[in-house]
Design a protein that fits this description.
two-stranded antiparallel ribbon
């Protein structure tokens, strides 16, 4: 998901995740493997506490974001109407959430 050519400048194998000084290094470790893992874990936690919220939980991860946005275009054609959207793309190291109302209590 969400990777482009490896490029140069690597001091370790970019296809092998490495931890150094509390940081993870590897192709896609931040963009966007980290947000994907965080979102899957959040979904797992939400599903485990189903009685605390209402609605439908959908985790959507799109492909081709770096080239022409084919995955996003395909999703937009479906015209979903979510109550909450979390965009995990780490542009400027920020996570964005668009919220309507989702909590039962």
């Amino acid at each position: 998901m969400d990777t482009v050519s490896v490029g140069g400048g690597w001091t370790n194998d970019p296809f092998y995740l490495t931890e150094r000084n509390g940081r993870l290094f590897g192709r896609g470790a931040c963009d966007a493997k980290g947000p994907i893992v965080a979102m899957v874990e959040a979904g797992r936690l939400l599903a485990s506490q189903r009685d605390l919220w209402r609605g439908t939980l959908v985790l959507m991860f799109v492909a081709d974001e770096e080239i022409n946005g084919g995955g996003s275009r395909a999703l937009a054609k479906q015209q979903p109407k979510p109550d909450l959207i979390v965009i995990g793309e780490p542009t400027n190291n920020a996570v964005y959430a668009l919220i309507k109302a989702v909590c039962a209590r």
